[in-house]
Amino acid sequence: MAHALEPKAKTLAEAGSDAPYGVIGDLDPRVRVVLDCVFAITTVTLTTIPALIAALATAISLLMMSRLPIRRTLKRMAMMDSFIIFMLVLLPFTMPGEPMFSVFGFPASWQGLWKAIEIGLTANAVILTLMVLVGTMEPVTLGHALHKLRCPEVLVHLLMFTIRYIEVLREEYLRLRGAMKIRGFRPGTNWHTYRSFGYLVGMMLVRAIERSERILGAMKCRGFSGQLILLQEFRMTRRDHRFAALLGGVCVGLLFLDFL
Question: Is 166 a domain residue?
Answer without folding.
Answer: yes
